[in-house]
Task: structure prediction
Amino acid sequence: MTTPAQPAIDQLRELVPGTPPFGYWPQTWAWALLLVLLLAVLSAWAARRWWRWRRDLYRREALIRLDQLAAAPAEQRLAALRELPELLKRVALSMPGTPAVAGLGGDAWEQFMAAHARQALPQGFSIALQQLAYAPDAQLHALDESTRLSLFSTSRAWIETHHVAL
Result:
């Protein structure tokens, strides 16, 4: 009787991978069309989001400055209050597609702000802004903390939510 020969390691061969039972490429033109449409919609959505992000750059910068003004120390509080109406005017000037607002003041400025606000502005908000810009220093030092915080929160709400025509 002969003994069977033991296979040697050099006789081993690598197995050939089989083909998968499905293809990775769409089998019909409709799936390819759906893929192209999906990519087009995603590209359009991404472009629109980027465009809006770039368009709202002035808004983000104004909110950063508003936060700096609101957190101003007590010795700089008067200067911060004086800058608040100027900041709102700069925001209005930076809005894309708005009419000339540089010369607006009083009732016309209040109507402009109310027309572009998503929610109603408090009664007398433009008068308070006028006082911040032109009142004597003693009158601004006499403002209580709740009035000051109310002015900053209303300004923040207007900057964040004002309507911009497309």
User: Anything to note?
Assistant: The radius of gyration is 33 Å. Residues 70 and 149 are 8 Å apart (CA to CA). Residues 57-161 form one domain. Residues 29-55 form the longest helix (27 residues).
